[in-house]
Amino acid sequence: MSVSPSVLDDCGCCDEPTVATPVITNPAGLSAIAYRIGTQPQFKARMTTAIGTLPALSGLTSRDASDPSIALVDAWATVLDVLTFYQERIANEGFLRTAAETQSVYSLAAEIGYAPNPGVAADVYLAFQLESSPAALRLVTVPTGTKVQSLPDPKTNSKPQIFETVADFDAHVEWNVLYPRPSVPQRLGVGENSAVLAGTATLLKAGDGLLFVGFQRANNRRSQHWDFRVLETVTVDPATNTTVVTWGTALGHQNPTLKVHPEHSDLHVYAMRTRAGVFGFNAPDWRLMSKDTRVHWGVVDPTDPDPTDLVPQWPHFRIFSPFVKDPKNPTAPPPSIIDLDAVYSEAAQKSYVLLTLESYAQLFKIAEATQAARADFGLSGKTTRITLDGPNLKNFARHVRDTVVHLQGPEVALADLPLATPVHGRSIALDRVVGTLTAGQTIIVSGKRARAVVAGQAHHLTVLPDAPNQQSFLIRAGESVQMTADYTKTKRTGAYVWSVRNASGLEGKVEGQSWMLKWVPALDTDETISEVVMVTKVDLDDATHTRLAIAGASTVGGLLGCYDRASVRINANVVRGTHGETRQEVLGSGDASQTFQTFALRQSPLTYTSSSDPGGGTTTLTITVDGVRWSEVPTLYGRGPHEQVYVVRIAADGSVAVEFGDGVNGARLPTGVENVKATYRVGTGRPGNVGPDRIKLLMTRPLGVQSVDNPVASGIGADAESMDSARANAPQQVVTFSRVVSLTDFEDFARGFAGIAKAQADWLWDGDSRIVFVTVAGTDGASVDDAGLKHQQLVASIASYGDAHQQFVVATYEPVSFGLAAQVFIEPGHDQTTVVQAATNAVTDAFSFGNRSLGQPVFESDVIAAIQGAQGVLAVDLTALYVTTPPPTGATGVPSGRPINYMRTLPRKQPLKAKGTLPVALPSRRARLENGVKLAAQLVTIDPNQVLVTAT
Questions:
Q1: Which residues face 551 on adjacent strands?
Q2: For position 482, what pLDDT does the model report?
Q3: Residue 737's pLDDT is what?
Q4: How far apart are CA 39 and CA 21, in angstroms?
Q5: 246 Cβ contact partners less than 8 Å away, ≥ 6 residues apart
Q6: Could you state, in order of their start, the residue ranges of all structural domains in the chain?
Q7: Level-2 CATH architecture, domain 731-812
Q8: 486 neighbors 561 (Cβ within 8 angstroms)
Q9: Which residues contact 460 (CB under 8 A, 6 or more apart)?
């Protein structure tokens, strides 16, 4: 039986080496590589073991840690441990995937020609107001570079930001505020039995008459475009300064003898308060006259002892005046001259006069009117003798007693009827003529969302949700809803489709006939919204109103919203601005003896403005040397010795350096004194993402400018590309070569565009062709709306670098939020409040926008793992997991969305007890086609207000 030497001697000096140098293997795809050949204990063990193998150290038999030799070995093991630790760190910095330092990632990316995106400045549309006093300038030029400043937002603790205009703009006083046309002319047609008159001092009363005369009748005395009615009711409305009158028989009523109708346009309405009779209408009955009277009139022979009078009426008892003879027929009474029963001042030349019988009426104009005296038919007195310009009076000849003469009074104006319809669609009629507006001009439309109530006859309407799997809901008679978008009319059925939101915030579409919803005024508490549109054409709606044809900012369609007309305000003094402040500085002096001369900008970050270039940004830096502008290039390599170019290098800390050539690759700088100058702007990224109505301060005030505002929130500003983003995007530089061909190319190209935080590309088949559907999300979850500048630039950039034959669609994502309730078991010794807060923060961070991907579902196991990872959590009992309605748009720009699989909103501190019935996962769908509608991918994030973590 052999005995181990260690049994005989425990000093270890005779032990065989047992610690070998490790073999290092690193499979692909690791986030960090292993590069250390050992740690301090391993180094110490190897060196200690190796002592016995070295003849020179054979006398060193002690292995005790207190021995000075072993202590020296221990110290050197520590040195080696430190060296290998940093060697591993350095090795990790040599690979793009594993580098932990920003400068390392930037340097590695530069090796393949990739420059991290420097970020992009937010853009904004600024609405200027000019001074409107009579002495103020009517036209003011707002120059390029006019500075304005935002107000700090106390909710986000943001700092004031400077914005500058990007183009010269001629502003007009009359463009300060434009209003939509509030009313339209009242048009009375056949079938009307009421009218609204302007004013409250018409002096009309029931029983008075109204004469309606169309322009054809005014120009042609034979035209029948007129009508007459006797008023039944007269109602004065001081609130609207109008008078409403009604009559019995509708206009245009036809009977066997009366076939007249009013004119639809250019209608004149006259009050006919004065009624007159024809001279003789009150003459005594002829049959009661004495024989002497009858003999006097020459009707009876005085020698006849017993005369029999067979004449039933006074001789020549006609309405014609017998005192004016027709030259052509002296024996016949003139057919168009009559005497009235008294003197009437209303009977004026060229005024209208209406003769009526029980079943017949005829309109004339007075050609001449004079006062006369007449004695006839046993009567005598003053009369008004009128000559009528019109048809023959034969139909009235024998109707002396029953003809009623209506004399024209003052003309009454028809009131314009207020427009109850909202402002929407592809055109806007203004309240006046604005002749200075031109096509191509940008305007901002602001107002409250239109409201409507369900008509009583409709009882209720069913609203179909926009989002899949959400339940429909009802809006009942009298219930008020807001319009969330412009409404449309279907060509197939002629029905209207309205996008509505009820008082509970539920949204969807409802289809029906126009009478089912009645427009009502917006509420005072309703939010004012704004949008930017472009004028495509300027016309006259009529002689007194301008009509603007408009297109959305995306040049497709008209207004996105549907606005309450009374609240709409339009500003046409609109010019685009961008975030950042201009700086001008002398960089230094050129020296032709130096190669690759470099200068640093004194201030940063350098502003890049949004564009359709790859990457989505264009620099604002310009360099002049001896007054000559040099050009920026991506690299000096391959440039000629006389090319006046330079490159811009942005360091990880945001500092900017400008490098010039060496005379071989790019020209050297010429020698001079302070001859290298720079003009650039400072300011970029998220600080420029300000909400609406926050830019109020004029830092430079052009003469005549009174104020400034931004009714619409600024566009998407993005910070310089982060290290993780650059790590992911840099390889695409050599994969796509700025060409968009494959599905992955679309996704990578969009994700590398400034202001786009997430992108996902999918194939969709629309029935005719296969298209690429690109779903995008902006910085911090901002919506990349179709009407926004960022969307337009991204689409233009993809189109420029992609296959011209490949159809594609870019759309903003569909936001979906979820809530949860969980109980945690706390490890002994930990503070309950601290652990609960840590668990809440952990799960909120794990499912925030920055840590989620488009189309990524939320698994129950992921939620439990996130909470379990918080320090002090022993165990987790997840009691509720559910989808909620996404939060409304806020300062971060998260768009309002619609719920999917809606269960219910969980009130805080009221956990939903659903143990055993929790979903395995909350789905998040990729882009798809449903019922012929292309839907964007969903992004499921947590709603911080719907997280309830409690301790047991």
A1: 534
A2: 95
A3: 60
A4: 11
A5: 193, 194, 231, 232, 233
A6: 5-93, 183-274, 277-303+314-406, 587-679, 731-812, 814-951
A7: 2-Layer Sandwich (3.30)
A8: yes
A9: 454, 474, 475, 476, 477
